[in-house]
Amino acid sequence: MLVKIKGIHKVKMTLADGSKETYYYAWRGGPRMKEKPHTEAFSREHARLKEKAAETVKVILTLDHLIEHFTGPEHQRNPDFLVLAESTRVDHLYAYKLVRKHWPECPLAFTQAKGFKGDIRKWHRSMRANPRKADKALFSLSKAFSYAIETEYQGIEKNPCTGINRLYEGSRKEFLWTQEQIELARTKLEPHLLLPFEIALATGQRQGDILAMSWKQWDGKYLQFAQSKTGKKLKVLANTRIKTMLDALLPANKDKLRICLNSRGRPWTKDGFKSSWGKAMDSEEIKIEGVTYHDLRGTFICERAREGSSIEDITRISGHSMAEIRSVLEKHYLATDQGLSDAVILRSEKNP
User: Fold this and answer.
1) Which residues, including other chains, have CB under 8 Å from residue 30's CB and lie 6 or more apart?
2) Rounded-to-integer distance, Cα 126 and Cα 122, Å
3) Long-range contacts, stretch 316-319, CB < 8 angstroms, 24+ apart
4) 3-state DSSP assignment of residue 174
5) Number of helices and strands (H, E) in the chain?
6) What is the pLDDT of residue 37?
């Protein structure tokens, strides 16, 4: 009985002796068939080859696949991963190197089994000497599992990172810029550092968003921010100090893209700013200790609260949610801000 099979690939060959012969392959690029074509034996051979190929290509999903599902391959990143801030992506990718090194080719099924959460906790605690690094790594791993659950990635029904306590317990609650430190910085900082300092102090925005600002974000009255972390767009009225600085810079920098430039007139890099800022703070002329550039954000929040601005008002100008502002004020700053405590008593004396 003649048996016709779809997908068979035929190749006509001319042999060395000049004769012609037709070779049959199970599929284009597949193995060569040995049985006589159009026979039941040929059909059985084809079925065996197809079954064998299916077993060969069957992939056991691993933790690597889960991570790549979230990040996408290096040459074509996942759009959901690309919307994250660059610093966040860098932190995630570094953490995933640690994960892959610790669990090479770990089957995904193991991550859903009882006991894997304990393995994660041991891995997390193995980095206790650097608690912030440990917590960032744990967060990144948790994010990959959460994304898999959200997108219904096959085989993932629970996040084994859930419920593992963080190691880092530090906060910046005692680290606000004092008025003396602010005045010292204003007097001693060079112009290329003074401008991002003033913008941070007056707006409470993140370092990365300030350094990335272009002249298109300044209309002569308002600074317009596009927050990389939240995606929020803000329009902040520039105070007199910042307006004067920007108006003076604009003619000289009209052909430049970025507002904040380094001492060579080039856009800042994250590491370049960190290095220059650190050297300035450590210099004999300034020598400001105990506070960081990031602490300017908390100082901004606390100053606005001290002036009487509501959480809603601070939310509008900072771009944070009310819950975030309330958390910063309650957990990190208000508890140690003596000025705010004093204000309560002073107001009570005005209203006997």
Assistant:
1) 9, 49, 53
2) 6
3) 317/203, 317/204, 317/234, 317/236, 318/203, 318/204, 318/205, 318/234, 319/205, 319/225, 319/227, 319/230, 319/232, 319/234
4) coil
5) 16, 4
6) 85
Q: Are strands 222-226 and 20-25 parallel, antiparallel or unpaired?
A: unpaired
Helices 179-188, 191-203: axis angle to 10 degrees equals: 150
Residue type at position 198: E
Q: 225, 206, 229: which is closest to 83 by C-alpha?
A: 229
Structure tokens at 214: 């272009």
Q: What is the mean pLDDT of each run of 10 residues along the chain (352 residues)?
A: 71 76 80 85 86 67 93 91 86 95 93 94 94 92 93 89 83 76 96 96 92 92 84 87 91 75 92 93 92 89 82 78 69 51 57 56
d(CA 209, CA 200): 10
Domain residue spans of the chain: 9-57, 63-150, 179-350
Q: Which of the 8 DSSP states describes residue 115?
A: T
User: 179-350: which CATH architecture?
Assistant: Orthogonal Bundle (1.10)
Strand extents, DSSP E, 198-315: 222-226, 233-237
Structure tokens at 283: 């210099």
**What values do phi and psi take at 244, rounded to 5?**
-65, -40
Number of residues that make up the chain: 352
